[in-house]
Design goal:
The protein folds into two domains: 270 residues, Crotonobetainyl-coa:carnitine coa-transferase, domain 1 (Rossmann fold), CATH 3.40.50; 76 residues, formyl-coa transferase, domain 3 (2-Layer Sandwich), CATH 3.30.1540.10. 39% of the residues lie in helices and 14% in strands. The protein is built from 18 helices and eleven strands.
Length: 402
């Protein structure tokens, strides 16, 4: 069975996650991704294992969770791009690649002559893809940024939590991963256009752009009505669209249409509410939300979460568990749909890892966590793809170019 992107070659010059995570997704779909790293040190995420989150991400094989997760399936070559011979090797590989990808700042890209104008001269049909912090135009186009800057500047940190809380941040790397998904998406679209129209082009996406697009309806509401969407306040929000704590201190979240009003009331042991005139319309229930939420909250504490899930499911009402991460990765629905899969790592043995969320009937996907050792593929890539001889490769190595 085919892989969706088999035969596509990507040359990556990226660091950390929001950038490299995009080509990693292309690897999942069968693309060959060659990662250019600095000799001796490589991608900084190889060394960054502690992020002050209470967990050391160092793996038993000496790598880190964040490096392996963002670089799974790739080939690593080391090149000194400050050396003219190192640059020439890249130009040679670009001529034999479909995509060049980077998330370095434009000032560095231009200084190193790795810009679109230069590389497209070597390969006019090249897809040149980039990820930035805040977009390629404007006064902050060359500023660096990470996941939290995307969350903060987009308004996302004020879209979570309760109204009286400080800004809330989602952990860990949520916008980095969303940007990686968007980066892979832009590349696939550009490859489709090249196949249809025979054109190469430059495409870009940013942390800010991705985060703001995730907030599409928040922004659309503000733009069309002039009103900023308020943060969710559990105590006063609409009772059928809310979350509640159960007897075992676990939580459920409900998003039920009004036609289920009577059934919800009966299940909660509050049948009198369904018949009360003061609650018999959507508008009246909005006016009395605070009172209803208080009664619903008390009712939910009468049974454990799993019992509520069973009762609501029998009535085909929309209610689900508010899972912790541990609960989520062991959720039977997650496992049955391969959102968590088994993987046998050559160094670490049997693992469970996130699975690719898209399923194809006529294609297969690579689900793996095998990232390359620094420079592991330098010789084979330069020889088999670059066309360099063993003697030339030895010279590059002796001169510190690779």
């Amino acid at each position: 069975m085919h892989k969706p992107l088999e035969g596509i070659r990507v040359l990556e010059w990226g660091i950390f996650h929001a950038g490299p995570g995009g080509p990693a997704i292309l690897c999942d779909m069968g693309a060959e991704v060659i990662k250019i790293e600095r000799p001796g040190t490589g991608d900084p995420s190889r060394q960054h294992s502690v992020y002050n989150i209470g967990i050391d991400s160092l793996l038993p094989n000496g790598s880190t969770i964040f490096y392996d997760g963002a670089n799974r399936g790739k080939k690593s070559i080391t090149l000194d791009l400050t050396n003219p011979d190192g640059k020439q090797i890249v130009y040679n590989l670009v001529n034999k690649s479909d995509v060049f990808f980077t998330n370095l700042r434009s000032s560095i890209i231009n200084k190193m002559n790795m810009d679109y104008t230069t590389l497209s001269t070597a390969n006019p049909k090249l897809i040149y893809a980039s990820v930035t912090g805040y977009g390629t135009r404007g006064p902050d186009a060359d500023l660096g940024g990470f996941d939290w800057q995307g969350q903060g500047r987009s308004g996302m940190m004020y879209s979570m939590g309760e109204p009286d809380m400080p800004p809330s941040v989602a952990v860990f790397g949520v916008i980095d991963q969303a940007t990686a998904i968007m980066a892979s998406y832009q590349i696939v679209i550009a490859l489709l256009m090249r196949g249809r129209f025979g054109i190469g082009q430059k495409v870009d996406v940013s942390l800010l752009g991705t985060a703001s697009y995730l907030l599409y309806f928040n922004n659309l509401t503000r733009l069309l009505t002039g009103c900023e969407l308020p943060r969710h306040k559990q105590a006063t929000a609409y009772p059928l669209r809310n979350y509640y704590q159960c007897q075992d201190e676990k939580w459920v979240v409900m998003n039920q249409r009004d036609k289920g009003w009577s059934t919800v009331c009966e299940l909660l042991g509050l049948p009198e509410l369904a018949k009360a005139p003061r609650f018999n319309s959507h508008e009246k229930r909005i006016e009395t939300s605070s009172e209803l939420v208080s009664m619903f909250s008390k009712a939910f504490t009468s049974k454990p979460r799993d019992e509520w899930l069973r009762l609501f499911s029998e009535k085909k009402l929309i209610l689900c568990a508010v899972n912790t991460t541990t609960e989520a990765i062991n959720d039977p629905q997650m496992i049955e749909n391969d959102y968590v899969v088994d993987f046998n790592h050559p160094d670490m043995g049997h693992l469970r890892i996130p699975g690719f969320p898209i399923h194809f009937s006529q294609a297969e996907i690579n689900n793996n966590l095998l990232a390359p050792k620094l420079g592991e593929h330098t010789n084979i890539v330069l020889k088999d793809i670059g066309g360099y001889s063993d003697k030339e490769i030895a010279r590059f190595r002796n001169n510190g170019i690779i």
